[in-house]
Design goal:
Aldose_1/G6P_1-epimerase; carbohydrate metabolism; 6-stranded antiparallel beta sheet; Beta-galactosidase, Chain A, domain 5; signal; mainly beta; binds 2-acetamido-2-deoxy-beta-D-glucopyranose; isomerase
Length: 376
Amino acid sequence: MLFKAFIVLSTAVSFGRAVTPWPFDLTTISAPDGSVSAKFVSFGATLTELWVKDKNGKARDVVLGYDDNSRLLTDPDHPVFNPIVGRYANRIKNGTFSIPITKLPQPDGPNVYHIPTNDHDGQVTLHGGIYGWDRRNWTLVSKSPSSVTYKHIDAGDEGFPGTVTAYATHTVSNGGILKSVVRATASQKTPIMLTQHVYWNLDAFQDGSNDILSHHLQVDASRVIDVDGNLIPTGDFINVDGTPFDFRKEQAIGARWNDTFNLCGSGCQGYDSSWVYDRSEVSRTGTSLWSDLSGIRVDISTNQPAVQVYSAFWLNTPRKAIHGGPTLSYGRWGAVAIEQQGYIDAINTPEWNVDQIYYPGKNFEWSTTYKFSVSK
Ligand SMILES: *[C@@H]1O[C@H](CO)[C@@H](O)[C@H](O)[C@H]1NC(C)=O
Ligand SMILES: *[C@@H]1O[C@H](CO)[C@@H](O)[C@H](O)[C@H]1NC(C)=O
Ligand SMILES: *[C@@H]1O[C@H](CO)[C@@H](O)[C@H](O)[C@H]1NC(C)=O
């Protein structure tokens, strides 16, 4: 079906007719100094490949994904490989919120909105609903050799109020830098929380490496958002002191692995939590990740207040060929997803006084810089 659609579209394009472009066409951008190059598809404004140099000067593709990117649409177990996630990333309790926000919005109360639930047996909305921004056909609006911009008009996707117009711009530059920025405007009051959901493996599955347990992680955060069994905030914070959440000094991700049973949900070993950054200046590095094996290091800075780190317990998807697929699959702990974002479900946690409501005159901006280097 999809293959047929591709033929039809290609033919139509060759006759110059105005047709919807195939959302899985690749756009490649490269830094002039060759330090980083990246590929994107307009579907979800998704990063599909990211090539950076290892300690021997050889480029590796350090993000997970598919060879056939149409699987971003068709894979029922899609792990959310590196798109822009919206209109509201992470979880919403019972898919319900009100404007103005309240602690326990009554289902039939005034200005109460219900978003389809798709997580934890229908008790939770994850990543903006069943067809969030990661599963929408964005439009390519401009590109240059080192930058690409996609646009999505969300006219009430999944039942959120009003229309949100978003532009996502991905730019690579000299010195090993990838910067992604998303700017959004709203036609009426609506919650907005976005993220870029990147799955990293800095060894790119070479040299016998299959998981990220020996990757080093450093997070400038002394608090983690406390959550219930559905990974919904309780309103409290966990002080990381003396816990396996303490990455203020770098630690191997797996250093305290036996203390992480059930930490990422029932039956799950590893991490799936949101760290609240301590740093006051946006320019400061919030999260760093590196591997001794490849020598590749990424330092991440962001204008967002928190970072979700998920060590991919539930991963089970055929790998890209460059990572040994399709014979081999991405499996348990094969990657770590690092997502710069706001406070989880602050729209149902008024005691935090975190304002995530946007409207005409109050625009949203998400920005994150990934700086690559090698540690020898
Ligand atoms: C959850 O939302 C649904 C509507 O989507 C509503 O019928 C139900 O009462 C809500 N549950 C709670 C506990 O508020
Ligand atoms: C996105 O594009 C794909 C492929 O052309 C198509 O099957 C799908 O229906 C489109 N999605 C939306 C929401 O328009
Ligand atoms: C972790 O747990 C496993 C299985 O329960 C055990 O075999 C192993 O020795 C433990 N490792 C450490 C470092 O305690």
